[in-house]
Automatic annotation (TrEMBL):
Domain HTH gntR-type stretches: 5-72
Keyword annotations: DNA-binding, Transcription, Transcription regulation
Domain of life from the UniProt record: Bacteria
Protein name (record): FCD domain-containing protein
InterPro entries attached to this UniProt entry: GntR_C (IPR011711), TF_FadR/GntR_C (IPR008920), Tscrpt_reg_HTH_GntR (IPR000524), WH-like_DNA-bd_sf (IPR036388), WH_DNA-bd_sf (IPR036390)
GO molecular function annotations of the record: DNA binding; DNA-binding transcription factor activity
SMART domains reported for this sequence: FCD (SM00895), HTH_GNTR (SM00345)
Length: 216
């Protein structure tokens, strides 16, 4: 049987996924009673799951409003993507130096999976394959602390990274950017990898306007 702790962690993952895919929108109230009924559990594991999500910045608790899905303003969103771009650049620079041949094969497999999702014109499938692709780079950095920080911010930005993929032709452009990153990593060029990942993640100009339009 699931312990209360395991149950709350499972619920936390499920609610986090619902937020990432847009089933629960930024600013939406998270009613403990409704969620408990939806998942067929008591309010205790729901409350614990929401506390976990609040500690990650994905949920906010406000006086008299209870828990809501965290909202990020445009300026903060740009700032968070700027930091994410630097995390990715650091991971990529180290991965280009440290990845083994076996890890190169795993990265290529993740890249191939992204291509298949792109060719299927399936942004939802691409979203998950894209996460696996970036995670392979985090792992390839062989820096546990950096990987932990990158994954944490990546999780925080998941709903917004997913929305970007619904912008016209973004799947194809994203895949092309991935391809240039893969080539740089396999060539062992850390600085080129860092530069390409930084450009891949940074949102500015038209991309930012498209993202804000998606949020609305």
């Amino acid at each position: 049987m699931l312990t209360t702790k395991n149950r709350s962690e499972t619920l936390r993952e499920t609610i986090e996924e619902m937020i990432a895919v847009g089933e629960l929108r930024p600013g939406q109230h998270l009613d403990e009673t409704e969620l408990a009924a939806q998942f067929g559990v008591s309010r205790t594991p729901i409350r614990e799951a929401l506390i976990q999500l609040a500690s990650m910045g994905i949920v906010e608790t406000r006086p008299r409003r209870g828990a809501i899905v965290a909202e990020i303003g445009p300026q903060q969103l740009v700032e968070m993507f700027e930091v994410m771009a630097e995390f990715e650049a650091m991971c990529g620079r180290l991965a280009a130096r440290r990845m083994s041949n076996e890890e190169h094969l795993s990265l290529l497999a993740a890249h191939q999976a992204c291509m298949e999702a792109r060719d299927a014109h399936d942004p939802d499938a691409y979203f998950y394959k894209n996460e696996a692709f970036h995670d392979a780079i985090y792992e390839g950095s062989h820096n546990a602390f950096l990987t932990m920080q990158a994954r944490s911010l990546h999780r925080r930005l998941r709903p917004y990274r997913r929305l970007q993929l619904r912008v016209r032709d973004r799947l194809n452009v994203s895949y092309q950017e991935h391809d240039s990153v893969v080539q740089a990593i396999i060539a062992g060029d850390g600085e080129l990898t860092a530069d390409r990942l930084r450009q891949h993640i940074t949102i500015q100009g038209q991309r930012f306007a498209d993202l804000i339009a998606s949020l609305r």
